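To: structure subgroup
Subject: Chain for Friday's discussion

All,

I'm putting the inputs and outputs inline so they're searchable in the archive.
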Amino acid sequence: MMTSPRVALFGAAGEVTGSCTLVESQFSRVLVDFGMFQGAPEQELRNAEPPPIDFAKLDAVVLTHAHIDHCGRLGMLSRLGFNGPIIVSDATSELLPRVLRASATLQFVRVDEHGAGTAPSFEVLEPAHLVQSSRAREVPPVVLFGHRDADRVAKMVRAIPWSAWHELPGGMRVRLHHACHVVGAASVELELEHAGTRRRVLCSGDIGPFGNPLLAVHQWPERAPDLVVMECTNGHRSLREHEAVRSFDAVVHDAVANGRRLLFPVFALGRAQQFLQHFARLSRAGALDGYQVYLDSGMAVHGASVLERHPRLLAPEPQRMMLRGESPMEFPQLHRLTSRSQSEDLRSIRGGCAILAGSGFCDAGPIVRHLLDHLEDEGSSLVFTGFQLEGSLGRALLEGATRVRVNGHERSVRCRIERVEGVSSHGDRADLLRWFEGFPNQPLRVVLNHGIGEARSEFGAALERDGTTVHTPMLGEPITF
């Protein structure tokens, strides 16, 4: 018999992907997130091995938000025996079915590409100290789930109101608090009964920066929970948002003045919408003139539309704009692309423009096509605005690769590589500390997830100085509370 409630991390334990947290009591079991591991091929192969959880005995799954490292394995749930509710926010309920279907499509495409010998790959050829390869798979990529699986899971989704308790099967109850990360992102609070007492655990999800110009402010429960499971992605980093905005503006002003082409690798949910708002701001100030901006990601287009349908999730000024019938992400120079043919048509454009294209790590998607077209163009700039995974093409280019082979095509890197520091949908160290201090009383116990060893160590030390007990468990290690 279980003597105390417990949590265990089955992903994002000392790493930044694969979020999966099991919360158990004497009477109930709930899984918070079921995300994909991302990065090198060996990381992605981990997704095929489900964690040692009896999915048929789960009472519910609760999702913090629709990023693939938090939701990417939900499509496996029906095959694993789960048939309960998947609890999400209203905005996430609109995003999730499309995210899962797109993921299923991509999995089958990768298998076909592997069989045909056309799987995405890259090699750094120069300079010598950066020479590396994406290490083509020796075995076919795995298919975790198909379209029918995604559709079955979509039927399990239940959207619940913000900040209101919702009863779950098995005796737990749940409520969602706005996390200011991406549209629909939530911190998940669970209340459970154990040995005649009620206890609470809060899973932060991903915590967005304070002062986010697009999204509404963070929310906290009225009292600190007994245990907080908290992300610390940037727990060892300080980002300067105001400097990032000035740097972004400078890059764009230079491109407009000199007719440069800007390539922005973006994540479809979060980063893309942030940039649309910044471009819209510059457009309203008359700074873009005839400079055109292309959003080359169907998912990013959908994410912007969902956000526009939920104005109460916006910061005050964007919300006022929406109430006036204006979108904070719309401007005359914007073109929202939704097909491959529209993306390929950009090759015929001459002169300067900005292209915001997925994916953020330059490992797939339309950004790869644009890189092949423009890496050798001295009149183009590749603009990095966030973290690049170790072993990714984006990381290699950022670190100074001068000659690469992408999908079998060699390119010399003659375009300008630029970096805008501080643009992130994740809060930095100061934001994380401020979020932790937002509770009416200080949480006494914290489990840190979603952070590499350095981030967990440094951020944990900061919390411990104020008297909080910090746990940094390994994969599957239970923490009782």
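Points worth raising on Friday:
The chain has two domains: 6-119+138-237+425-480, 241-419.
The mean pLDDT is 94.

D.
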